[in-house]
Specification:
about 25% strand, about 25% helix
Length: about 180
């Protein structure tokens, strides 16, 4: 069982103590108490501590630039490591994330350090880069006669009603495609 530990701001652990590191391949909308619903990423990390191992699931809340740390209920012995990591994977994936094993142990010490420094767990919220906001592009005026896009006969013809039917067909195809992709 993983519990939210609001007092944890970062994982202050040595790179050589990390035994498992997972990163989400997708972002998911998450709503945590006290924060607005927002796009989030996830990490799962297991590392050695005196007396055994600890496991931590971490959510990166993109809009508020905060990390939320979920710690396994206790320090556990090495023989439970695989079971606890599997429980962490299920915990994180139950929120809709797809985790990717970074295969941390297979890299050399320098590569591990680079990977660890490239993710926000060790730096905490203070080490997150500021959010990237795209400035709206200025609207360019279309030269006379070039603003009208001819309707394709395949999309319902050139009439307004035919164009509307073509749009409705494309919209229905997009909905069906979305349902198909959501089923995987």
């Amino acid at each position: 069982m993983y519990f939210w530990r609001k007092e944890i701001e970062k994982l202050d652990i040595a790179v050589d103590k990390i035994v498992f590191l997972f990163s989400s391949m997708n972002d998911v909308q998450i709503a945590l108490p006290g924060y607005p619903c927002q796009r989030s990423s996830a990490y799962l990390c297991a590392y050695s501590v005196p007396g055994g191992y600890e496991s931590m699931a971490v959510l990166l809340l993109h809009d508020v630039r905060q990390l939320a740390f979920y710690c396994f209920k206790e320090v556990f012995p090495g023989e439970k490591l695989d079971d606890v990591v599997q429980e962490g994977i299920l915990f994180v994936e139950s929120m809709g994330f797809m985790l990717n094993d970074l295969d941390f142990r297979s890299f050399g010490p320098e590569q591990r350090r680079e990977i660890w420094e490239s993710i926000p767990l060790a730096k905490g919220s203070a080490g997150l880069p500021p959010p990237v906001t795209a400035a709206p592009a200025p609207a360019a005026a279309a030269p006379a006669g070039e603003g009208d896009i001819p309707m394709s006969p395949l999309l319902g013809g050139g009439s307004e009603e035919g164009g509307r039917r073509g749009y409705e067909r494309r919209l229905e195809v997009c909905r069906k495609l979305g349902r198909l992709l959501a089923s995987f």
